[in-house]
Each structure stands twice: as structure tokens, then as C-alpha cells.
Design goal:
- Helix content is about 60%, strand content about 5%.
- The protein is built from 31 helices and nine strands.
- Strands 2-3-4-1-5-6-8 form a seven-stranded mixed sheet, with helices on both faces. A two-stranded antiparallel ribbon has the order 7-9.
- α20 packs across α28 and α26 packs antiparallel against α27.
- The chain is elongated, with a radius of gyration of 31 Å.
């Protein structure tokens, strides 16, 4: 027996496939993307005795009929050479429907094992199986499992050992579609055999013949099969004449279901009247037209409460660690030895990477909470509840969850769109997600609103800003679905799986997967950006200043003023020097150069510089203003900075700052995720350009109209 095996894991969505994958592979798995499509790939490894098994987790699909990117991926992977065994996971509580995919997999004649998962649910429903008869019909061994527990997966491991030892003697499925159809399949298959296609020598010609008769797009794209299309057209016409059919695609689907009906007649039995499940009783409340929406908002509130409550202390520890790391580097690295590189590492790289890693607890705990909602079965209900409202804006219910997550962080929210089946809906959701006001924008609002608006209006202003983001996002979605992503309305059956108790193991693996992807995808771009921005904020160094700061500093140090005032005066001089140096740097020069462009929206060169810095992360806007307005890092930074800003700008300008921050690009990490998820540089640059244009035009209109009508144009801090 060979020692290494490649096994493909496939099944319908919500069949428990992921639980089985996690149980078999544990932490020995990695996540990636299939080239050319935005479908997540998973691979893992495990051993059984001396056998080393590579397990490929294919996307959840209902068929191999090329109706979605997931089905395209599954088709391409399964028709490649090298797969030793297929593990077909089936929800045994709805076995008749799940076996439709099995009929297509059986036609590949690759050794296959059927995994009748959720057998406990099937037993509760009073469903019994004649396993021996089904094994003979499909030519495949069957293991009955409960994928949520290690004991429940043990029957699969035991039968898998036997199956791997007998790959050369696997059974042949007893699949027949009726004499007329089988004759047409045979006629096309004969033509394919004559071509002797080397790369598909391991796949029976019958498989491709059936796919061609179904007008399957993946099969029809295979260049080697072009020469048999004449025979295919002739056989389709023949079948249409005999059976008076208009569409062989649906005709073949009907034939498959008819074949399954006969196979399951004596092999899948009900032991009594099917009782109403607990899930149905819960859904009477959870999906109720009156209670469904409030319950969903409560669930989201609890999710955010859990995320931020649990993450807050861990974020503090991470901040302390990176602070300690920077201090440690400074302690062992002399100021006289390559000072610029020393400062770049501590103030640029460590601070920049730390600024990303500090949000990792939020990511981990958020996805832990989301995993609970998904694996328990509630997330499907949430999508169902929101579906009607979202479709008014051209989206489906599943788009709502990523949009809500966008209030926390745009990066994981975009990653969460992978659960949306429709490619157009998924792309639309990704494109509008940056308009949801993420947590990184909150420091800007927290700085400006108290500085420019009376206390009684502060909560209202915050609400208005968030509301603007939601309204613009939904209107943008409607526009995109009517233009760039235009197409016929797609109807998706929202399957509501029974409620289940998630296992801690699967929740932790899900949380770790998402956290690892976040660090890999977002952390690298921030690292590069931190270095670039540090250079831009510090180079070139100014050597001649408007004041002799060294002499003034010495003068203050020798003065007889009290200690507190002396420290305040020294800090002011230091920060004034820093602000003057900043104006001389690349960032300052760029800000001065671009000031005429931003002047129509009420921005001077300082706001322009801060806006450019905020491309790395929106929080940079606040820290850049702190430097430019000579506030350094004093304990009272926020209060003093608010006072300084109130003396230089008007409430109208403050509102325009928040509006531009809301509608413009959130950060470079968001653009990087958009490029990765949509697999397109073009869409990434288009998103950046559209968001900038939207932010600029909207802010300019607000500023110009407000200035014309004299609304909020008086400086209140003078």
C-alpha cells in the first residue's frame, strides 16, 4: 500500500464538512485562495497508521454544473490527476437532496467514500438507511458520523483505513438514466474516446459526455472537446424530439432526481410520522416578522459587546509589549550609532506594526463570536430576516452581516463576504463596505465633535455621521447593481440548517484561521506603509529654523520659573520645532503642493498632510495634527489639541473633515484586501478613485453651500 494519499473533501453547504475537516486535520491546515477566483481554499494533513493523508477541503457546492465560482473550482480540482479518493459528506437528515451531487461525483469513477454526517439528526427525525444497499448502488463504502465530536468521526477513520487499502478494487456505480439517454451519452462518449485526450485520460469519457449534454460551461470551455460539439448538438436534438424537451440541462437534472428516487425507495426509510423539530419552534420566534429584526440587532450588539469587552485588556497588554520592545531597542542601541535607522525601527516599524497587531484581539474575538452564530445555525436566520430589506437596494440578506461588521473594521468585514454566493452581490458588498464608518474613524470624530459642537448636539452629530455612511453605502449598492454589476435578479434558496451546539475546537480553529489571514494580508502592507510614512515624515531634515530653539531652550532651563511652567515651556519649544521640521519634510511639502486642490473643501496644507498620512490608518489623522499643532504627546494632548483646532477652524470645516474621512479610502490595508478578495488591481484602483471622487465632490458641495449660506462659518475658539 502506498504511503501518501491525496483526498478531496466535498459536500453541500451546511452539511458539516468543515467540522469533519477540523476534526481530522486539527491545527495542521492552511488557508489560501484559488488563483483567478475569490474562493477560499483549505488544505490539511493527518495520518492513519503509516499513511500520510493530504486533505483538500473543496468549496461547498450543490452540483458540478458551473453555476458559481465554487462549482467551477470543484469541477477543475476533481478533474485534475492525482486525487486518490473523494470523501463526499452528506447531510443524512436530508439525504435524498444531498445525494444529487453524489450522482455526479460517482460518474468521475474516482474511488469515493460517502460520509453520512449528522446521523444523530437523522435518527431524531426517524430516518433509517439500508447502508448495504446504498453502498452497492453507488459502489462506495458509507460511514455514518456526527462530525461535531471526535467520537462521532471515529467510524469515518475506521472505514477510511479500509478504503485506502482497497483503492484498486473500488466499486462501480449502478447509474442509468434510461435507454434513450444512455444511448446518447454513449454516442458522445465514443467521439470523446477517439480524441485520446491525455490530460483527462484518468476521467471516463462518459462523465464529459453527460456534462456536454447538460451544456455545462466548464466542460464546453475545454478546447480539446470542440470537435465533438457537432455530435453533442445532434444528440440534444435527438433527445428533444423523443422527449419533447426544451432544455436538456433541466431534463438531465430531472433524470438524476428520478434515478435517486428509485435508489432511495427501499434504502431510505421513515420509521414513523416526522415530528416537528425544536429548530422549527425556535424559528417561529427567531424569524418572526415582528421579533426577528430586534433579535438580530440584539445579537449584533452582544457580539460587539463581547468583542470589545474581551479584547480591551488584551489590547492593553499588546500596547505595553510594543512599548517595552521599543524602549528595549532604544536602551541597547546608542543614539550615536545610526540614529536614523534606530528611530525608523522604533518609531516607524515597531510603532507601525504594533498599531496593526493591537487590533488582533478585536479580530479574534469578533470572529469567535461570528463563528458561534454561524455554526449554531443562527447566521442563516439573520440573513433570512434581512433579505427583504436588502433586496430593495440590490443586495441579499447575507450582505447585511459584513456591512454590520464594517462598523468594527473594514478588513475582516470584507473577508466575511465570502459567505455570499452571488458573485455580483459579493463584489457590490465589497465595494460599498468602506463607506461604513469603521472604528479607526472614531478617534477623528472623538477629537472634532467635542471641539466644535455644543454638548447637547454631540450625540446627534455622531449619529448623523454614521447615518450618512449607511445611507450612502445602500444608495451606492443600488447604483452599482444597476450599472457595473448589472444583471438579472438572482434568486437563492436560503437553507436554514437545524440549530446545533458548536464545539470549542471548531470555534478556536475558525478564530485562528481568520486571525492568521488578517495578519498575513493586512500586516504586511502596514509594515511597508509605516516605513514609507516614517521616511516621508522625517526626510529631509531641516537644519535652519525660524528661531534659535537651542538658545531658547537653554534660556528656559536657566530661568527661575517654577518646575511645572518650565516643563510646559520646554515642551512647547520642542513641539514648535517639530512642527516646523514637519513642514519641511516630504509630507509637509506634499501638503503645501496639494493645498490648492484641497482648498475648495476647506482644507489647508496641515489638514491635507494629515489626510495623506491617514491613508495608512485613519487614526494617523489625529496624531499628525497633534505634531503639526505642536502638541506632542503630552498627557493633556486631546483637550489641548481640540482648543488649538477650535482657534484655527470653523464647525463647518470640522464637519467637512469628518465627512471626508467617512467617505474616502479607509486605509491601505482595505485596498490590499479588496485587491486580494476581488483578484483585480483594476477594481482596487477603481475603488480608490471612486471613493476619493465621492468624498471630494460631496465635501466640496457641503463646504461651498455652507459657506454661501454662512452655516457654521464662525471660528468659536477665538
Amino acid at each position: 500500500m502506498k504511503k501518501k494519499f491525496k483526498v478531496a473533501l466535498i459536500g453541500n453547504p451546511n452539511c458539516g464538512k468543515t467540522s469533519i475537516f477540523n476534526m481530522l486535520t486539527g491545527a495542521r491546515q492552511h488557508v489560501g485562495n484559488y488563483p483567478g477566483v475569490t474562493v477560499e481554499s483549505k488544505a490539511g494533513s493527518f495520518t492513519i497508521g503509516d499513511a500520510e493523508i493530504e486533505l483538500i477541503d473543496l468549496p461547498g457546492v450543490y452540483s458540478l454544473s458551473s453555476n458559481s465560482p465554487e462549482e467551477d473550482v470543484a469541477f477543475n480540482e476533481l478533474t485534475k490527476a492525482g486525487i486518490d479518493l473523494i470523501l463526499n459528506v452528506i447531510d443524512s437528515s436530508i439525504a435524498r437532496r444531498s445525494l444529487y451531487l453524489t450522482t455526479q461525483l460517482a460518474e468521475l469513477h474516482i474511488p469515493m467514500m460517502l460520509v453520512f454526517n449528522m446521523s444523530d439528526d437523522a435518527q431524531k427525525k426517524g430516518i433509517k438507511f439500508n447502508i448495504e444497499k446504498l453502498e452497492k448502488y453507488f459502489g462506495s463504502p458509507i460511514a455514518q458520523t456526527v462530525g461535531r465530536t471526535s467520537d462521532g468521526v471515529r467510524p469515518l477513520v475506521e472505514k477510511l483505513t479500509v478504503a485506502l487499502e482497497n483503492l484498486e478494487n473500488h466499486g462501480v456505480p449502478m447509474l442509468s438514466y434510461g435507454s434513450d439517454i444512455d444511448d446518447s451519452i454513449e454516442a458522445v462518449a465514443k467521439k470523446i474516446d477517439e480524441l485520446k485526450i491525455e490530460r483527462y485520460a484518468h476521467i471516463p469519457s462518459r462523465f464529459f459526455a453527460i456534462k456536454l449534454l447538460e451544456s455545462d460551461s466548464c466542460t464546453m470551455k475545454i478546447p480539446e472537446l470542440k470537435s465533438v460539439m457537432g455530435e453533442v448538438a445532434e444528440q440534444i436534438k435527438h433527445l428533444s424530439d423523443i422527449h419533447a424537451i426544451d432544455d436538456t440541462t433541466t431534463f438531465m437534472a430531472d433524470c438524476r432526481y428520478a434515478m435517486l428516487s428509485g435508489a432511495c425507495r427501499d434504502a431510505v426509510m421513515m420509521t414513523g410520522e416526522r415530528r416537528r423539530e425544536i429548530s422549527d419552534k425556535i424559528d417561529a420566534v427567531m424569524t418572526n416578522k415582528f421579533f426577528g429584526l430586534p433579535i438580530f440587532f440584539l445579537a449584533m450588539y452582544i457580539t460587539f459587546w463581547f468583542t470589545f469587552t474581551c479584547a480591551d485588556p488584551v489590547m492593553g497588554w499588546i500596547e505595553e509589549f510594543f512599548g517595552w520592545l521599543a524602549d528595549s531597542v532604544n536602551a541597547v542601541w546608542s543614539e550615536d550609532t545610526m540614529p536614523y535607522l534606530r528611530s525608523m525601527i522604533t518609531d516607524g516599524i515597531i510603532a507601525g506594526v504594533g498599531g496593526v497587531v493591537v487590533f488582533l484581539p478585536n479580530i479574534l474575538f469578533m470572529f469567535f463570536a461570528i463563528a458561534i452564530l454561524e455554526e449554531s445555525g443562527y447566521m442563516s436566520r439573520a440573513a433570512f430576516v434581512m433579505d427583504g430589506l436588502m433586496r430593495k437596494f440590490g443586495l441579499q440578506g447575507k450582505s447585511f452581516v459584513p456591512l454590520v461588521l464594517g462598523f468594527g473594521c473594514t478588513v475582516p468585514a470584507i473577508m466575511a463576504t465570502r459567505g455570499i454566493e452571488s458573485e455580483r452581490d459579493r463584489k457590490t458588498t465589497i465595494m460599498v463596505l468602506p463607506l461604513m464608518s469603521c472604528g479607526a474613524r472614531l478617534p477623528i470624530y472623538a477629537l472634532l465633535i467635542p471641539a466644535f459642537f455644543a454638548q447637547k448636539y454631540q450625540a446627534l452629530m455622531m449619529w448623523i455621521i454614521y447615518l450618512i455612511g449607511v445611507i450612502v453605502a445602500l444608495l451606492a449598492a443600488r447604483l452599482l447593481k444597476n450599472t457595473i454589476f448589472k444583471g438579472d435578479g438572482e434568486v437563492y434558496l436560503m437553507e436554514l440548517p437545524p440549530y446545533r451546539l458548536p464545539t470549542l475546537r471548531s470555534l478556536l480553529l475558525h478564530m485562528w484561521d481568520k486571525g492568521k489571514v488578517y495578519l498575513q494580508k493586512a500586516g504586511t502592507i502596514i509594515l511597508a506603509t509605516s516605513i514609507i510614512l516614517y521616511i516621508a515624515n522625517t526626510y529631509p531634515e531641516k537644519t535652519e529654523f525660524s528661531k534659535d530653539y537651542d538658545a531658547l531652550t537653554t534660556q528656559v532651563e536657566k530661568s527661575n520659573i517654577d518646575k511645572e511652567k518650565k516643563e510646559e515651556a520646554l515642551a512647547t519649544l520642542e513641539n514648535e520645532k517639530m512642527a516646523e521640521s514637519m513642514e519641511y519634510t516630504i509630507s509637509g511639502s506634499v501638503g503645501k503642493f496639494l493645498e490648492p486642490v484641497f482648498k475648495p473643501i476647506g482644507f489647508d496644507w496641515k489638514l491635507t498632510t494629515a489626510t495623506i498620512g491617514a491613508l495608512a490608518a485613519k487614526e494617523v489623522f489625529v496624531s499628525q495634527l497633534g505634531i503639526l499643532y505642536a502638541e506632542g504627546e503630552a498627557d493633556e494632548e486631546s483637550d489641548t489639541l481640540r482648543q488649538r483646532l477650535a482657534k484655527h477652524y470653523t464647525p463647518l470645516q470640522a464637519f467637512c473633515m469628518m465627512l471626508f474621512a467617512l467617505l474616502s479610502i479607509p486605509c491601505f490595508a482595505t485596498l490590499a484586501i479588496i485587491k486580494r478578495e476581488m483578484n483585480s488591481w483594476k477594481m482596487m484602483f477603481a475603488e480608490a478613485g471612486i471613493l476619493f471622487a465621492l468624498a471630494y465632490i460631496t465635501t466640496m458641495l457641503v463646504y461651498q453651500v455652507g459657506s454661501l449660506l454662512q452655516i457654521g462659518t464662525k471660528i468659536i475658539g477665538q
